[in-house]
Design a protein that fits this description.
Belongs to the RMDN family. The protein contains 13 helices and no strands. By secondary structure, it is mostly helical.
Length: about 260
């Protein structure tokens, strides 16, 4: 009887523990689902604000999630931080702070998901921005790493026109590089990175083919590159398109 009672008691306790465990699993499951819905909602709001050109509101929304482990949120925060830094109303000190903040977010996004193409793209962009504050030697020294991240982004998403454009900018910058910067590059690399305006032009056209009229700056650089190649007729065509592009952002106005 003692044994039977002990076994019955054990069964009741086991059953109770099992029910508690199952309830915990159920609650945890709901919590996880709720959390995922919340992330999706924030991303949806963020993309709406980005599309509307609401830079400051977008930053305020995303900075609340700077400790998130979600790569999609983190690279969007990196982009928002950078966009805020680009505004003419942002002070020089704020620009610097935001540039480093953006790089940190992009780096964390990569740590959380190395297969996220946008994390690679924004890491490359933000690393380039930080070079503006650390001097030409650092900027040139980071050039190979930046290009590698852009190329990885294209591998992960071959249709992303913006990343293709960014490699075009990379090529244009090295094609246009003055002699003293070439000298710095020669001290940093056994084989310094080089490019041509023809190579830059190829990437700008590839970007346009991937997504026609997607970015005012791509139109501008098509015009500028044709000018470098002494083709004024084609330069006028693309510069006219850049001029007529609807200005949604601060950058569009600058273009």
């Amino acid at each position: 009887q003692v044994l039977r009672k002990s076994l019955q008691r054990g069964f009741v306790l086991s059953a109770g523990s099992f029910l508690v465990y199952e309830a915990h699993k159920l609650i945890s499951g709901f919590a996880e689902v709720h959390a995922s819905f919340k992330v999706e909602e924030v991303i949806e709001q963020a993309d709406y604000l980005y599309g509307s050109g609401e830079t400051e509101k977008l930053y305020r929304l995303l900075v609340q999630h700077k400790n998130s482990d979600d790569a999609e949120l983190l690279w969007r925060l990196a982009r928002a931080s950078r966009d805020l830094a680009q505004l003419s109303s942002t002070s020089a000190e704020q620009k610097r702070q935001l540039a480093y903040e953006a790089l940190k977010c992009a780096e964390k996004a990569l740590e959380k998901n190395e297969s996220n193409f946008a994390a690679h793209k924004w890491y490359g962009i933000c690393l380039s921005d930080v070079g503006d504050f650390e001097g030409i030697k650092t900027k040139i020294g980071n050039a190979i790493v930046i290009k590698e991240h852009f190329q990885r982004a294209i591998e992960l998403n071959p249709k992303d026109a913006t990343t293709i454009h960014l490699i075009g900018i990379w090529c244009y910058s090295f094609a246009e590089m003055p002699w003293y910067q070439r000298k710095i590059a020669a001290t940093l690399f056994a084989t310094p990175p080089t490019s041509t305006f023809q190579e830059a032009l190829r990437y700008f056209h590839m970007a346009e083919e991937a997504d026609p009229n997607f970015y005012s700056k791509n139109l501008l650089f098509l015009g500028k590159t044709y000018l470098k190649l002494n083709n004024k007729k084609m330069a006028l065509l693309w510069l006219s398109k850049a001029k007529e592009y609807p200005a949604h952002t601060e950058e569009d106005k600058q273009v």
